[in-house]
Amino acid sequence: MMKRPSNPKPKRAAVKRRPPIRLACVSCDRDDYDGVWRLPKDWTGIQKWQTLSESMKEVAERDSSRSVFDWPTHMGYCPECQQADS
Fold first, then answer.
1. Contact between 42 and 74 (Cβ < 8 Å)
2. Closest by Cα among 36, 26, 39 to 69
3. Exposed (0-12), middle (13-18) or buried (19+): which is 37, by Cβ within 10 Å?
4. Within 10 Å of residue 71's Cβ, how many Cβ atoms?
5. In angstroms, what CA-CA distances link 35 with 23, 55, 77?
6. Statement: residue 2 has pLDDT above 70
7. What span, in angstroms and rounded, lies between the C-alpha atoms of 75 and 77?
8. What is the CA radius of gyration of the chain?
9. What distance in Å separates the CA atoms of residue 24 and residue 71, rounded to the nearest whole number?
10. Between 6 and 22, residue with greater pLDDT
11. Helices (H), ranges, 20-68
């Protein structure tokens, strides 16, 4: 029989990754796709706006170069706004 080591390797803690996509609509600024893993197929004109780390930076109260509304990583047109434009 093999002897068990007295100091077994510690188990690694599971690291939860944040979903990399924070998608907002250009027209209505909906935020129900804030934190998704994949871009929805029914949205159009999706473009990358900024990186996830840039979108997560805190905005200082007196910082006029950024806005708290600059949270999305991607911008596009949701299905409802596409229908409204038709």
1. no
2. 26
3. exposed
4. 18
5. 8, 11, 17
6. no
7. 7
8. 21
9. 9
10. 22
11. 52-56
Structure tokens at 9: 């390797």
Dump pLDDT digits (tens) for 35-86.
999 999 999 999 999 999 998 888 888 878 878 788 999 999 999 999 887 6
Distance between CA atoms of 47 and 50, rounded to whole angstroms?
A: 9
What's the token pair of residue 56?
């997560």
Other beta carbons within 10 Å of 42: 10
- CA–CA distance, 20 with 40 (Å, rounded to integer): 14
- Which pair of structure tokens corresponds to residue 40? 């929805």
- In this structure, the strands spanning 44-48 and 74-77 are antiparallel
pTM of the model: 0.72
